[in-house]
């Protein structure tokens, strides 16, 4: 029996059995259905890599693996597979959607299998008609596979199942978009509908970027919650890092000034795109598994060094200090003190604090910043970020303000900033406690105290402006004097050194 005959027999058997199982998981089922979208693009990409002469034997084998996985998964999604924790299609709407996939799948699989050996001859000549057929055939299969995912998400909701189906769907779609961006890049490199594929590449690159942000930060309007699972955050840090390496290659194609230039750039970058897409895809696959189920069993702190802890603490200190300077600049604007310079400073600090908070919560591998190493720190930092969001909204009122800032607004900012500072300081203290348990001789105390000195400078400016504005003048005078004295004492400690509680020299 020929290779295609075996595939055709398997496809024909797809609707023979329907075995629903109450023990199966909607989350896993939606994830596997979402993976089907990715496979339509991956097998197309692998076919195109063969046509470009890039590791033809390896990519042919990988293409056959993708075809096999698609076929096996399609069978499981239609008939159910309790061993894989997959529901079978349990409604007419879902079955009709999968029948549409079956109708498209047979001819497309045959197209790939029948032509993979002959699409590029021994002289490097490529059968453009076959590439056109692949380009035309993969998208309807992708679209219909996406319909199936939507029907399954709706079915899960109708069943009253508590599942983060929308988040799993969106995260799963990211796998597909990585493969699709590669496919479109390779179609451009092959000279197939270059202008059209450049437009599609731009759209899908933007969709990946906005979706990446959405499944981390959340999208309340769409019912997507902020990511709050420690292990998933650490894995998404890997995705962010690898996307940062992959994206510039795509942008080089998108920045081309002509069709000919786009083709040439895509052709030159094809090996790098294929290479860099691998780690990005692998990181995203691992992240999707955690979006489906994150049991919280990772232990990032086990691999953290003193240096990585120190960098976290420095960034915590920066967040506290810069947020306080933002408040000080707001108050200077409210008191009509150096308004232009204070406005510039406020704008810069608003952006910097937001970036620093994002790095503290999500991590930033490119800058060697770890994501929070415990779930408690994740929860505290998310709470602090919520407070920062509220304070940021108040501070933004001073940017370009055309009327005087009221005393009520000044008092509100002062109270909000105190709450944020206390919360961030609590997080920093817990970080310090954790690092001292792991590294009793941790030696970054001088840096920490120096950071606190910077914060106190900003606090001194804040208290002076609050007194000038008439906001709780008496108590803020006391706070000014107390903070000034603490700053001077800290300055002496840094210069002369201070013994630790155990008698050793701490700094």
TrEMBL record:
Bilayer topology term: Multi-pass membrane protein
Keyword line: Membrane, Signal, Transmembrane, Transmembrane helix
Residues of the signal peptide: 1-24
Residue ranges annotated for the NarX-like N-terminal domain, each copy included: 29-112
Compartments reported by the entry: Membrane
Major localization listed first in the record, in broad terms: membrane
Gene Ontology annotations for the cellular component aspect, listed alphabetically: membrane
Designated name of the protein: NarX-like N-terminal domain-containing protein
Source organism of the structure: Symbiodinium natans
